[in-house]
Design a protein that fits this description.
four-stranded antiparallel beta sheet; alpha/beta; 419 residues
Length: 419
């Protein structure tokens, strides 16, 4: 559980998943084939329409949690998988994806030439955007979330790239500029190195920081919040005492991680993990822009009453809130870092008790990252710095701070050219 919470922290710090409470229940609405095509912005081939029609009719009659997964190759071949009345939304998504994968690889269905992985398109009756749809309209000239930072007095330069720590496999490959700046770099600097998630020393530190007084947690947690948290964990087969065995804010990151996994998003296909693995294979040095304990403290170093608010927010269910995650990804792919920053912290900013958390997660941590980036700029070796895209935008974001320090700051397009 704690190890998973550690991964959840990385999710949280990319674009404030604290504030993006993902919807998990829209069971009242029935989805028609026309609805699905409209919301996914696709036109299914006739053969798929014929197969999907009875599947959707049956799906609409079933109880939540339920999910539908889909894969296609653009040439009329497709695969579909469903799961209904599952124990949890995560279990439904996983079962539907497995069923779709079995269908996709079954040679008797003549669909074994579908390379694209299966992805969740319905969770209950919430329509989840296809990975390919995010790329519609993007060109080589589209601004990216990548900057070249140069010290004109020394001619030293680095690359600064905003990342999404979590992605779905169908969002790959990334814009070409990411590969370009990776290969041009002598070393890679990540916000947090995901390859160290299983390092025993790091896990021990994490557990020490996340340890709590169970009685203090029980006393501070309302009966209503306790009931909601226990119900959520029970659906996953997790012991109810887990609610009291770690800090509420860390538990909230685990809940956010699980909800994202239900939508098909995970760390393993995130930008940071992908390039950390590639750097490891190529023997490229991997640095960390900040001490991971600083990020942990930004989340856990709060009064218990504030942490309860964080936990409560992570358990809320809001209609269509998953669309905000999709908007974040759209802003990221279009290099719209200031819009991304504003959206990422929107809900936290609305609550006077939670706004300081957003300030610390982003603005205050940015100052430490800025100091480290300036150190990289003193070296002739080229460093590619990859941090959560939420750290780049805003009046106290890294792009603004580096500009104010007098560096030459150039945004690159998807092809890697200065804009």
């Amino acid at each position: 559980m704690l190890k998973k919470c550690f991964k959840g922290l990385v999710l949280l710090t990319t674009a404030s998943l604290l504030s993006l409470v993902l919807t998990q229940a829209q069971a009242a609405k029935k989805i028609s084939l026309a609805d699905l095509e409209s919301e996914l912005e696709v036109t299914f081939p006739d053969a798929l329409k014929t197969e999907l029609t009875p599947i959707l009719e049956s799906y609409n009659k079933q109880k939540s949690p339920k999910a539908l997964a889909y894969a296609g190759n653009g040439s009329g071949y497709f695969a579909v998988g469903t799961s209904v009345k599952a124990r949890s939304h995560l279990a439904a998504a996983q079962a539907a994806t497995r069923a779709c994968d079995e269908y996709r690889t079954n040679t008797t269905n003549n669909n074994n030439n579908i390379v694209s992985p299966c992805e969740i398109v319905l969770l209950d009756n919430a329509v989840i955007k296809l990975g390919a749809a995010f790329k519609i309209g993007l060109t080589e000239k589209t601004p990216s979330s990548v900057w070249r930072i140069s010290d004109i007095s020394t001619n030293n330069s680095i690359y600064l790239a905003g990342t999404m720590h979590i992605l779905k496999p169908t969002l790959l490959p990334l814009p070409a500029v990411y590969d370009a700046i990776f290969h041009q770099a002598d070393r890679l600097a990540l916000e947090t190195n995901p390859l160290l998630f299983t390092d025993p020393k790091r896990i021990a530190k994490f557990q020490a920081i996340g340890s709590v007084n169970k009685k203090e947690v029980k006393d501070a947690m309302s009966r209503k919040l306790r009931k909601k948290a226990v119900k959520f964990l029970k659906s996953l087969g997790v012991a109810k005492d887990t609610v009291f065995s770690t800090s509420p804010s860390m538990l909230s990151t685990q809940i956010a991680s699980i909800k994202l996994s239900s939508l098909g998003y995970n760390i393993d296909t995130g930008v940071d993990a992908a390039y950390a693995r590639q750097a490891s294979v190529e023997g490229k040095a991997i640095l960390e822009v900040e001490d991971f304990e600083i990020a942990l403290a930004a989340l856990t170093d709060w009064p218990m009453s504030t942490q309860m608010k964080i936990l409560q927010q992570s358990l809320q269910e809001k209609k269509d809130q998953h669309k905000e995650l999709e908007q974040l990804i759209e802003h990221w792919l279009s290099g719209e870092i200031h819009q991304l920053y504003a959206l990422a912290r929107k809900d936290l900013d609305r609550d006077p008790d939670l706004k300081p958390i957003a300030d610390r997660l982003y603005d205050e941590r940015n100052l430490g990252m800025l100091d480290q980036i300036e150190i990289y700029l003193t070296h002739p070796e080229t460093t590619t710095v990859m941090v959560g895209a939420g750290h780049l935008g805003g009046p106290k974001g890294l792009v603004t701070l580096l500009t104010e320090r007098g560096y030459l700051v150039q945004q690159l397009n998807h092809a890697g050219e200065p804009i």
